[in-house]
Design goal:
The protein has a single domain, classed as Endonuclease III, domain 1 (Orthogonal Bundle). It has helices at 2-7, 16-29, 34-47, 53-57, 61-68, 77-97, 100-106, 128-139, 147-156, 170-175; strands at residues 113-114, 160-161. The longest helix has 21 residues, at 77-97. It is globular, with a radius of gyration of 16 Å. A two-stranded parallel ribbon has the order 1-2. It has 178 residues and is an all-alpha fold. The protein is built from 10 helices and 2 strands.
């Protein structure tokens, strides 16, 4: 968890495959701890062809049933089904916008929102941006993309810099020096 925080969380991501990975993992995390999902991350990479949305979009009912038996994954039917559904919606966005990155970062004009939170209690569960993006993604066919999940996703991929102002990572990310 410390390594994830110090090296990855909140760093702006512009790689579509990594954005898809975070989106799927945030959905898998719903109702669980992030630590649980982070421990399963390599299993997800293995089981989901490195989070390749084109391959995941083609998973059959038999493939999905096999995933439900994999102890290295969160074995929740709705979450597995949403992974396939999200891959299909993700590919549609890529086709429409040229990349998911372009779609996502257009919501903040390409510039991360700089949080000014001093304590964990200052962190909201969701924001108007997360609510708007959640609504739009649901209309486009995504699942497990409620406003709380989307806010966690936005934080993880650096669309929002929510490192506390007292955290050593806040200032470098605010300045763009990763």
């Amino acid at each position: 968890m410390i390594r994830y925080h110090d090296e990855e969380w909140g760093v702006p991501v512009h790689d579509d495959q990594l954005l898809f990975e975070f989106l799927i993992l945030e959905g898998a995390q719903a109702g669980l701890s992030w630590e649980t999902v982070l421990r399963k991350r390599e299993n997800y990479r293995r089981a989901l062809s490195g989070f390749d949305p084109a391959k995941i979009a083609r998973l059959t009912a038999r493939d999905r049933a096999h995933l439900l038996k994999d102890p290295g994954l969160v074995r929740n039917r709705a979450k597995i089904e949403s992974t396939v559904k999200n891959a299909r919606a993700f590919l549609e966005i890529q086709e429409e916008y040229g990349s998911f990155d372009a779609f996502l970062w257009a919501h903040v004009d390409g510039t991360p929102i700089q949080g000014k939170r001093r304590t964990r209690s200052d962190l909201p569960a969701k924001t108007p941006l997360a609510e708007q993006l959640s609504k739009e993604m649901k209309k486009r066919g995504f699942g497990f993309v409620g406003p709380t999940i989307i806010y966690a996703f936005l934080q993880a991929v650096g669309v929002v810099n929510d490192h506390l102002t007292t955290c050593f990572r806040h200032k470098p990310l605010a300045k763009g020096s990763l």
